[in-house]
Design goal:
- With 420 residues, the protein is α+β, with helices and mostly antiparallel strands.
- It has helices spanning 15-21, 27-36, 89-103, 116-119, 153-168, 185-195, 208-220, 258-280, 315-320, 373-380, 386-389, 399-405, and strands spanning 2-5, 42-48, 51-65, 68-80, 108-111, 125-137, 144-146, 175-179, 202-204, 224-230, 233-241, 247-253, 290-294, 303-312, 330-337, 347-352, 360-363, 369-372, 396-397, 414-415.
- Helix 2 (27-36) runs antiparallel to helix 7 (208-220) and helix 6 (185-195) packs across helix 7.
- It is globular and about 75 Å long.
């Protein structure tokens, strides 16, 4: 058995394993992925007799944590050939890649798990849940409505009144939709930064390169990024795919343009229906009755699902990014147990004075408690309060320590809607 990181020139050798383990991915998507994404990612493999039998890929992202930018990595394509499973290959790849990420000063890594149970033994925990809504065809008019709102004459009347009020205020109306080109990426980045970035404590940095990659990725799935413009000015956009029916992802639009988003989605759905009819030569109504909208505004969601798990890599980096309210002071210490990244297993001291927001991170010999890395992840990202952790196995929290930790602002405002 040989475990190594591939040279970039060798990345294409892993495509055969991807096709074998993930047969649902299309040739068009893999053409995109292996041409664009593997240019700058890291791929770790295990070889037996010169053949790749297991792999793990790390796609680079820059993440913003409370206004600071850090390198990070999205763990993807963790795959082992069937005959080589249950040999501990995945664990070996994870441990090796985590050590490499630690050397680069990455605060945390993240992934979208096929199953939560696969990654919990390696101290990954959920940090982000995604809101998903559904656009449904109205029985009366064939228009699209949010499933959470229902389809009734009352709703239709309310929507008409809202639309009239929006038009009177100069919102909405005369919005034209079109697909984005690579040249639109810088504008998309600026729109996100100006209107949405400050909503999140933690998110990926959405620069022009990010949106160019998104456009190409969606195009590989028979979709794209749909722009909504009024008088030439961008008012919103959303990603969509049409490989197996229309799917919409992360609609971002300004206040007052919800109805325009719905109209744009309806126009797109009708266009795709016409395309399917031409392809299949099928007559009659083949319209899609329900359209999933992933990462939709919370007020239109009909379900919420845990989506992204993360694991602490450089604990010092992550703790140093946390904030404290100006009116609070913090002074506490605790031991951390991290079986995979032993450099994190220290007694950490956190301090912050009244009038400052930065959290100062040091080491000490005096510990007021004990926190395993996985439990600390849930605490930092606001998934569990100190009092919820107190009764867990391996956790030791004094009342004073719990009170000091509660003063620290948790990273509950997370946005990770990336696919690869």
């Amino acid at each position: 058995m040989i475990l190594r990181r591939l040279d970039p020139a060798e990345h294409g050798k892993t495509r055969r394993l991807w096709e074998e383990v993930f047969p649902d991915d299309t040739k068009a998507f893999l053409d995109y992925y292996y041409y664009i994404r593997t240019r700058d990612n890291a791929i770790y493999v295990i070889e037996e007799e010169g053949e790749i039998c297991s792999m793990l890929q790390l796609n680079p992202y820059t993440v913003r944590v409370e206004g600071q930018e850090f390198p990070s990595a999205y763990v993807i394509a963790v795959a082992t050939r069937k005959e080589y499973r249950s040999r501990g290959y995945m664990g070996a790849l994870l441990r090796t890649s985590l050590k490499e990420m630690y050397s680069r000063g990455i605060p945390f890594t993240f992934l979208m798990p096929a199953a939560e149970a696969i990654y919990t033994p390696y101290d990954f925990r959920y940090i982000y849940s995604q809101d998903t809504g559904t656009l449904i065809r109205g029985k009366r008019d064939g228009a699209l409505y949010w499933k959470s709102e229902g389809d009734s004459p009352v709703h239709s009347e309310i929507k008409a009144e809202v639309k009239a009020a929006e038009l009177e205020k100069g919102w909405g109306g005369n919005v034209l939709s079109s697909d984005a080109g690579l040249w639109d990426a810088e504008e998309l980045s600026g729109f996100f930064e100006d209107n949405f970035a400050d909503r999140f404590q933690v998110c990926t940095v959405r620069d022009a390169a990010y949106y160019q990659t998104m456009i190409l990725e969606q195009q590989s799935e028979r979709g794209g990024v749909r722009l909504m413009r009024r008088d030439g000015a961008l008012k919103g956009f959303y990603a969509y795919a049409g490989e197996e029916g229309l799917e919409i992802r992360e609609p971002l639009f300004l206040p007052g343009y919800e109805e325009d988003f719905r109209s744009s989605a309806e126009e797109l759905a009708d266009r795709m229906q016409e395309g399917r009819q031409r392809e299949t030569e099928q007559q009659g109504d083949v319209s899609q009755q329900e359209i999933p909208v992933y990462a939709c505004p919370a007020e239109y969601a009909d379900r919420r699902k845990p989506l992204i798990m993360a694991r602490i890599v450089s604990l010092r980096k992550l703790l140093s990014a946390l904030k404290v309210p100006e009116e609070e002071s913090v002074n506490c210490s605790f031991a951390v147990i991290d079986p995979l990244i032993t450099e994190n297993s220290r007694v950490w001291r956190l301090t912050s004075g009244i009038g400052e927001t930065e959290l100062h991170v040091g080491e000490t010999e005096d510990s007021e408690g004990v926190l395993p890395a996985a439990d600390l992840t849930e605490l930092i990202f606001g998934r569990a309060a100190p009092e919820e952790l107190a009764g867990r196995e391996g956790v030791l929290l004094t009342e004073r320590l719990a009170g000091e930790l509660k003063k620290i602002i948790t990273l509950s405002g997370v946005c990770f809607n990336e696919i690869v």
